[in-house]
Amino acid sequence: MASFINLMADVIWTETDIVNRTESMIRKEFSVDEENILTRKTSAAMMGQYALSFDEQEEIQRYAAACAIAQYSGKMAREDMAILQKALDYEAAQRLLERGWTYTPEQVAAAVALTEQLRADHMLMGLVGERERHKALNS
To answer: Which uninterrupted H or E stretch holds 109?
Structure first.
């Protein structure tokens, strides 16, 4: 399953952005008020103070499923952001090396080291290639 991160874009999603997106996924299904009511009913049922109806049990299961999907989507987004960040770092290092004469020897050495390190990551290099093709088609 792919995440909601566009790996072809140069957009960096922060942790807050990812959390907000996953929260909105839950909010599409359940309002804050609905969530609070379900939480109170679940807590009361766990303490033996309330007996859940069949419909309430189904609603709690639906809520749990929506939360699980949002949690998994957030996990996938974080993984995609990690590889996208590496791709952006690699592309920046490549640009620096193409214009090496405008940078200090230390900057060039750091870019070479980063490039060499990241070239070993075949998944990353696949993404970099896809991004290059995407940019070529859209320029």
So the answer is: helix 105-119
As to burial, measured by CB atoms within 10 angstroms (0-12 exposed, 13-18 middle, 19+ buried), residue 113 is exposed
| pLDDT confidence bin for 80, thresholds 50/70/90 | very high
- For the chain, helix, strand, coil in percent to 5 are 80, 0, 20
Domain borders along the chain are: 15-137
Q: How far, CA to CA in Å, does 121 sit from each of 43, 110, 126?
A: 47, 18, 9
CA geometry: angle 32, 6, 16, nearest 5 deg: 40
Return the pLDDT at 95: 85
